[in-house]
Every structure is written in structure tokens, then in C-alpha cells.
Amino acid sequence: MTDSIAVLGAGKIGEALLSGLLTGGRRVEELMFTERHPERAAELTARYGVAAVDVATAAKEAAVLIVAVKPQDIEPLLDELAPHATADTLVVSLCAGLPTSLYERSLDDGVPVVRVMPNTPMVVGEAMSAISPGRHATNDHLAVVEELLSVVGMVVRVPESQQDAVTALSGSGPAYFFYLVEAMIDAGILLGLPRAVSEKLIIQSAVGAATMLAKTGEHPVILREAVTSPAGTTIMAIRELEKHGVRAALLDAIEAARDRSQELGKAHDPS
Ligand SMILES: NC(=O)C1=CN([C@@H]2O[C@H](COP(=O)(O)OP(=O)(O)OC[C@H]3O[C@@H](n4cnc5c(N)ncnc54)[C@H](O)[C@@H]3O)[C@@H](O)[C@H]2O)C=CC1
Ligand SMILES: O=C(O)[C@@H]1CCC=N1
């Protein structure tokens, strides 16, 4: 099993990872984090018992450093990290858009970097994480990251050139499903159902549909056709979705997210 792990920047995704790792069997003593805001650090230590440390301590004590700050905050973090990271430190970036080359330019030659796009369902052990090696990351480094992240969900390897698309699909993906669920609950309210009933109906339908997708291996079209009776209720709803361009809206939305991921990378590229 991997040695100690430090999360650098314990916001939403950093906390989701810490909590997922603890639920998945990691011991508190194997984990640590850095956090710019002391109140936030105190809150997390109180909640999980994990120690807040400084970057120098994290780099000295942890075998894996997981960067989870906003892309916009990466430069000061790299300035802090650069004097301490060596070829024995594995740096794992969770930051949307940021290429491994950005880290390699700032850190000593030979520091291995793995770029990861996870998602928040890691908090319930159902993350989808895609990982890509930087220039100095070997198969062994990828295996370490796979082992670490498999505790909180599924892991796939992708070429780094696909990471902006992955970010738009599975990194942001949970938000699209939450948005859809929110809108469907509102529809229940529109039809006069009590909110609690509407929430229960839609959330269990989402769980059921997701479980069917995951467990039957059937294509979504086949599963949808099985719900859609001739001249029935479902086809009336599908016609409205098509009329309102929901499919095209999704294609545009995910393309916009991919473009934003590319922009975030370019904003930190001096060339
Ligand atoms: N929220 C999500 O669903 C996902 C986020 N990501 C990526 O994870 C990263 C973090 O995102 P969130 O957790 O949503 O942001 P966040 O703003 O909730 O968390 C970032 C944390 O880093 C801390 N921080 C900033 N600079 C620091 C420094 N120099 N030293 C120590 N702590 C520092 C901030 O105080 C904050 O608590 C981003 O790069 C994002 O692209 C990736 C996948 C999913
Ligand atoms: O919205 C964002 O930029 C981050 C990256 C993927 C999910 N949340």
C-alpha cells in the first residue's frame, strides 16, 4: 500500500478525497493536508482527525502530494513546493486544465507528475478518475495512483491530450446530473406533488437508472426504448425534450466545458 498521502489545498475536492480515503480504509496517520485558511484547516482536523501541515512537512513526510487548489492558485503553490519536491516525490495534480508540463517547468528535473481528473462522487466511493502520466512518470507511478484512487471509485488511464474532454464529461459530469434531478423535482412540484415525495421519486429513479446502466451493460437507447410505449406517456415527454433541443444543449454545454479547461491550461502557459 502507498505510504503517506498529503492533499495540498483541502477545499471541496480535497475534502472529498480525504473523506473517501478514510472510508476506504486509509488510516488517519497516513493522511495529512495543507490549507491556506486556518479556520478551514481546524474544521477539517476536527471532522476527520487528519493533521494540517505546511508544504515543507508534507513534502518531507508524504510519498504522494496531491495538488487540489484552484487552477488560478497554482503558481504560489508551485513556488512553495519547488524547493522541497525531489524525484522521490510523486506529484498528483487534480487541477482542471493544468498540463503536467506546467509542473515540470516549475519543479526540479525528474520530479514525476501524474495528472488526474476525479469527480466528487469519491465521497461515496463512486468516483470516476482518469489519469495521465507526465514526462517523468513511469508505469509504477501510475500504478501507485491507480491503487490510491481505486479505493474511492473507478480509474482509467487516458492520454493527457484527452484530459480536457474528460474534465468536461466526468469531472463536471455530476453537476449536470444534479441539475437534471433538480429540474425534475421542480416538475413534480409543478404537477402538485409534495416536495418530499417528488424528491424521493426522482432520486430513486436516478439511482435505479444509473444502476441499470452500470449493471446490465445495455446501451442507453435500448433501456430508454423499454420505457417508451407506443402512443404512451414517455414519447410525449421525449418529443418535448427534442423540441427544446436538450440533446444539442448538452453537446454545446460539454464542448463549452472542454473549451474552458483548455483556456485554464493556456492561462498558465508562458509560451
Ligand atoms: N470540485 C470538483 O468537483 C472538482 C474539482 N477539481 C479540481 O480540484 C481543484 C480544487 O477544486 P475545489 O476543491 O472545487 O476548490 P476549492 O476552492 O473548494 O478548494 C481549494 C482549496 O485550496 C486552498 N488553497 C488555495 N491555495 C492554497 C495554498 N497555496 N496552500 C494551501 N491551500 C490552498 C483553498 O483555501 C481551498 O480550500 C481545482 O483545481 C479543480 O479544477 C477536479 C475535479 C472535480
Ligand atoms: O468546475 C470546475 O472547474 C471543476 C473541474 C471539474 C469539476 N469542477
From TrEMBL:
This is Pyrroline-5-carboxylate reductase. GO terms for biological process: L-proline biosynthetic process. Belongs to the pyrroline-5-carboxylate reductase family. GO terms for molecular function: pyrroline-5-carboxylate reductase activity. Residues 5-97 form the Pyrroline-5-carboxylate reductase catalytic N-terminal domain. It is an enzyme of class 1 (oxidoreductase). It catalyses: L-proline + NADP(+) = (S)-1-pyrroline-5-carboxylate + NADPH + 2 H(+); L-proline + NAD(+) = (S)-1-pyrroline-5-carboxylate + NADH + 2 H(+). Its EC number is 1.5.1.2. It comes from the Bacteria. Residues 160-264 form the Pyrroline-5-carboxylate reductase dimerisation domain. HAMAP family: P5C_reductase (MF_01925). InterPro entries: 6-PGluconate_DH-like_C_sf (IPR008927), NAD(P)-bd_dom_sf (IPR036291), P5C_Rdtase_cat_N (IPR028939), P5CR-like_CS (IPR053790), P5CR_dimer (IPR029036), Pyrroline-COOH_reductase (IPR000304). Catalyzes the reduction of 1-pyrroline-5-carboxylate (PCA) to L-proline. It comes from Actinophytocola oryzae.
